[in-house]
Design brief:
This protein is α/β, with parallel strands linked by helices and 183 residues long. It has one domain: Rossmann fold. Helices cover 37% and strands 16% of the residues. The radius of gyration is 15 Å and the shape is globular. The relative contact order is 0.15. The structure holds NADP nicotinamide-adenine-dinucleotide phosphate. The site of NADP nicotinamide-adenine-dinucleotide phosphate (NAP) has 29 residues, from helix 1, strand 2 and helix 7. NADP nicotinamide-adenine-dinucleotide phosphate (NAP) binds next to helix 1, strand 2 and helix 7.
């Protein structure tokens, strides 16, 4: 990809694997997170780290500017603050990220990969209630090319690989995958 790829939550367990896999492909990666120390500890030296918080949209502007894709693999964790619980933060974070992206040039992209939470409603509950897991509807409504990864009981490595394949269509290929949900 000619443009950088932003990984929101790129210092976390899944995100740092996504970052390493993308960098191994020669991609330029911008990691967004709230802790410089965590970034120093877990990221390869050539990863670009930006201090940012998805609850504060102004902190997303610089790192998202000019990106060709975004992998959203943020998890609020036990110390979150804000209304709506972790799902609420995930939802508003996705909305803030999309709003920031849609302010920039959007022709043909950027591509958005959302890792949905595994404790979100099951497919059966979804059919009964019409509710989708947090953030998914906003991504679908954005008009951006997207992939939703629903991890289920997958390992960190499986989830990270699914994110990379969502961007490049599989090992060895460089074609973007079509809009879809990976369960
Ligand atoms: N771990 C697994 O085995 C596994 C397996 C399957 C699926 N998943 C799913 O994958 C996703 C990520 O999980 P994980 O285990 O990688 O989580 P994690 O290790 O707790 O990492 C969470 C990431 O989100 C960032 N973050 C948290 N709050 C933020 C905020 N307000 N703004 C910006 N960044 C923020 C954290 O960085 P800072 O706190 O430094 O900001 C960190 O980089 C979750 O949806 C999880 O359910 C995980």
């Amino acid at each position: 990809m000619k443009s950088p790829i932003a990984v929101i939550g790129g210092t976390g367990g899944v995100g740092r694997l996504v970052t390493r896999k993308l960098m191994a492909r020669g991609e330029t990666v911008r990691v967004i997170g709230r802790a410089t120390l965590r970034a120093r500890r877990h990221l390869p030296p050539l990863a670009q780290f930006f201090l940012g918080d998805v609850r504060e949209p102004e902190t997303l502007r610089t790192p998202l500017h000019g990106c060709g894709a975004v992998v959203y693999v943020m998890e609020p964790g036990p110390g979150f603050r804000g209304s709506g619980g972790p799902a609420g933060i995930l939802e508003s974070g996705v909305v803030n990220t999309l709003d920031t992206l849609l302010r920039g040039p959007v022709s043909g992209g950027p591509r958005f990969v959302l890792v949905s939470r595994p404790d979100s409603p099951t497919h059966t509950q979804e059919r009964l209630t019409g509710r989708h897991p947090a953030g998914e509807d906003a991504v679908r409504a954005s008009g951006l090319p997207y992939t939703v990864v629903r991890p289920g009981r997958r390992t960190e490595h499986d989830v990270a690989e699914a994110c990379v394949q969502a961007l490049f269509g599989g090992p060895g290929t460089r074609q973007p995958a079509p809009d879809r949900a990976l369960a």
